[in-house]
Amino acid sequence: MADIESNLVAVRRRIRAACRAAGRAEDAVGLLAISKTQDAAAIRAAHAAGQYAFGENYLQEALDKRARLADARLLPPIEWHFTGPIQSNKTRAIAEAFDWVHTVDRLKIAQRLSEQRPATLPPLHVCVQVNISGEASKSGCAAAESAALCHAVAALPRLRLRGLMAIPAPPAEGDDPRAPFRALRELFENLRRDGLELDTLSAGMSDDLEAAIAEGSTIVRIGSAIFGPRESRITNHPSRP
Ligand SMILES: *Cc1c(COP(=O)(O)O)cnc(C)c1O
User: Fold this and answer.
1) CB of 78 within 8 A of CB of 55?
2) pLDDT classification of 237: cutoffs 50, 70, 90
3) pLDDT attached to residue 230
4) Is 83 a pocket residue for ligand 1 (Cβ < 6 Å)?
5) Which residues contact 43 (CB under 8 A, 6 or more apart)?
6) Is the CB of 138 under 6 A from ligand 1?
7) Which residues contact 110 (CB under 8 A, 6 or more apart)?
8) Is cis: bond before 76, omega within 30 of 0?
9) Buried b (16+ CB within 10 A) or exposed e, 55-83
10) Cα 130 from Cα 104, distance rounded (Å)
């Protein structure tokens, strides 16, 4: 667990250096710790090291861990982000249990999240996920459809559209690693010119956070650089990446 603390220090240092290199303020980029496949003890260790925002991809796994952390009464409380693909039969539990959802990629899901967000909670913060590399097998709406989806999501009463999210394909040899992040930023700036009040670009992971920050990312989603490789738990989750 000592590793988690020193890994967090190293990741924060990378983020600050990338901000400086891009001429941005050192606190311009938030760090979301992606704790999928990690156990509750790992989350507790990261929290003890000053990390308060966590992203989870699998609903049942997230709920199980939260139940295990409930007794700890962690302060400040954890801000929970859902960062995995969403099936429509899971929207109610997600709307009830999370503060943010990064992976809204179709209107039906957004409508259900809005309808099912409990009245006792503030609006759910959401990002629209864009399939920025145009991969056939990836989730995310097509770039060409993102503006229409964003305008529709922004009109839903119990959601607060914050911006865009993407998981670019790993760059091929000779590709500019910043190109997909630049394309995402252009979509984002067009939406803002159209009058949407967006402030969030959720982009950048352990291997590409520098390229994402250079192109304006405001939240990087970091898993393995904090918690170590996920392979060690594959035996528990045989069907998971
Ligand atoms: C797993 C995952 C991450 C973190 O990936 P690392 O390469 O381990 O940093 C970020 N975002 C999403 C949506 C993920 O599923």
Assistant:
1) no
2) very low
3) 84
4) yes
5) 33, 35, 54, 65, 69, 78
6) no
7) 104, 126, 149, 152, 153, 156, 159
8) yes
9) bbbbbebbeebbeebeeeeeeeebebbbb
10) 9
Residue with tokens 């704790």: 35
Alpha-carbon distance of 186 to 205, in angstroms, equals: 20
pLDDT in tens, 50-82: 999 999 999 999 999 999 998 878 899 999 999
Q: Is 69 in the pocket of ligand 1 (CB under 6 A)?
A: no
In this predicted model, what pLDDT tens digit does every residue of 79-101 receive, in sequence order?
999 999 999 999 999 999 999 99
Contact between 34 and 59 under an 8 Å Cβ cutoff? The reply is no
- Whose C-alpha lies nearest to ligand 1, atom 6? 223
Please tell me the residue having the least CA distance from ligand 1 atom 1.
223
- pTM above threshold 0.85: yes
Q: Which atom of ligand 1 is nearest to the CA of 32?
A: 10
User: Is any atom of ligand 1 closer than 6 Å to the C-beta of 11?
Assistant: no
